[in-house]
Every structure is written in structure tokens, then in C-alpha cells.
Amino acid sequence: MVHASMRAVGGRAERVVEALLETIGPAGTLTAYVDFEPNQDGEFDLEASPAVRDHGVLAEVIRTWPGALRSANPGASMAAIGRRAAWLVADHPLDYGYGPGSPLAKLVEVDGRVLLLGADFDHVTLLHHAEHLARLPNKRIVRYAARIGGVTRTIEEYDTSDGVVASMPELYFDATVRAFVATGQCASGKVGGAVSHLIPARPLTDFAVAALERDFA
Predict the structure, then answer these.
(1) Mean confidence (pLDDT) of the chain
(2) H or E element: which one contains 151?
(3) Which of these, 104, 116, 166, 192, has the minimum number of CB atoms within 10 Å of its CB?
């Protein structure tokens, strides 16, 4: 799973995707969090709705890459390319789309990794999966309406915008990922002009769940 700041990396996003696919080879799978920008009717179109602009240029390039597939939960939507792309995006639950059965849960299941290419630590979407798993009192729940296939659906999710609990500091994700990186369990270096980190998904999730339960349970 990749998060990238193309401004930090430099060059063309298409070349970055090509390089990543060359690196993982035909047996690998590349995925990115895309969310969605609604069309003029406010509808989620699985094939056409662009990635949210705030997620960067690379997310949209991955979404539109030849052969890319996309999961069907609007707000938690992910795009994937490669051997296990169909499995990764299949059967994405509409409610609680960062929990069991989600692409994030599957990433952990297969011991995948998160690559930060110049992206800030607080951009690690996988921590929303940790928020779902953590046993915390008074988790905040949000509901939003989404039009899918001409039908308006109400989708329920833990609050991924303002924090799953009311007392969560604004930069909690940043601090959590930074603390995990400091344990030495990831590889760090420079890609182009960008300081980058390759982080194992399962250990990070376990670390984040433990931190959440320590700090907010």
C-alpha cells in the first residue's frame, strides 16, 4: 500500500507506478486509498468517480491504471493493481469499511507493507483499521448518505475525520507512526528526493491498537 507526496519524490506519477510495479513483479499487488469525489449528481460511480484530491496525484494514477480494480465502499474505497487485486477489493463492507473484510484487513492478513514516499506519518490510512480493532469506550460513530447505483444508502462508520474518541489529539496518527518507526521495525531511505519508509502492516497495526488502548481505554 502506497502513500506518496509527488512534490517530495519529484518526476511523473506514472513513472513511480511503473517503478513500483517493476519492483513487486507479477506476483505482487499495489494498492492505494482513493476515497471518492462525487459526480455532479452526488453519486459514487465505481468506475468513474475520481480519487479525493487531498490523497495526491498518485492515488488517481493508480485508480485509472490499466487493469486496476476498485473496492465498492465509497468513503473507504481503495484501488489495486496486480495478482491479488480482485481479492483485495472484493466484498468491501459498506458499514465499518475499515474493519474486518476491508482491504486494510486483508493487507494485514497477508503481511503486506505500507510504503510512505515522502508522505507525512499522519497519512497512514491503516491506522483507521487499528481504530476499528481497538477496544475503546465511547467510540464516535458517524453516518453519511451516499448515492450508489441511483439509490441513496446510509453508511455507518467510526469517525475517521475527527478521531475515533473525542480526546484524541490532532497529530495522534503522526506520533504513533513516528514512534513505531523509532522501534527499527521498518526500512527507511530516500526515493528520489523523498525521505521514505517501508512499514510492515501487521506489526504497525498491533502497535497502534496497543497505543490506542493504552491512551484512551
Answers:
(1) 96
(2) strand 151-158
(3) 166
CB 61 within 8 A of CB 32: no
Q: What is the pLDDT of residues 39-71, one digit of tens each?
A: 777 799 999 999 998 888 999 999 999 999 999
Residue 212's H or E segment, with its range, is helix 201-216
Q: What cell was used for 196?
A: 521514505
Q: Which amino acid is at 76?
A: A
**How far apart (Å, rounded) are the C-alpha atoms in residues 44 and 73?**
9
Q: Count of alpha carbons within 13 Å of 53, Cβ hemisphere only?
A: 1
Number of domains in the chain: 1
Task: Return the axis-axis angle of helices 172-181 and 201-216, rounded to nearest 10°.
Answer: 130
List of the chain residues with pLDDT < 50: none
> What is the torsion angle, in degrees rounded to the nearest 10, for the CA atoms of residue 192, residue 34, residue 42 and residue 170?
-90
Dihedral pair phi/psi, residue 22, rounded to 5°: -65, -40
